UniProtKB/TrEMBL annotation:
Keywords on record: Membrane, Transmembrane, Transmembrane helix
Protein name: DoxX
Organism: Bifidobacterium tissieri
Transmembrane intervals: 28-47, 53-73
Keyword Transmembrane set for record: yes
């Protein structure tokens, strides 16, 4: 088993990942996109479903982009 109980065995020998965006920036983006997703749901339910779907989809894409932003140069081992 890996030294750290929280590290899976298959990840024990990998180089640690360093996110491109700061933790605070990601948190702010996640909160904004969460609110936008909820607004999109409301617009879908009580307004124009196409506009609501667009808002919700855009919020999801933006949140995902900030969550998985990856730059191999930023690996901690380099």
């Amino acid at each position: 088993m890996a030294e750290d109980e929280n590290t899976p065995q298959h990840a024990a020998d990998t180089t640690p990942y360093t996110p491109v965006f700061d933790e605070r920036v990601r948190t702010i983006i996640y909160i904004i996109t969460l609110v936008a997703g909820i607004v999109g749901l409301g617009v879908s339910a009580f307004g124009d479903p196409q506009v609501g779907a667009y808002i919700s989809s855009a919020a999801g894409v933006i949140a995902a982009a900030f969550g998985v932003a990856y730059n191999p140069i930023r690996l901690a081992g380099k």
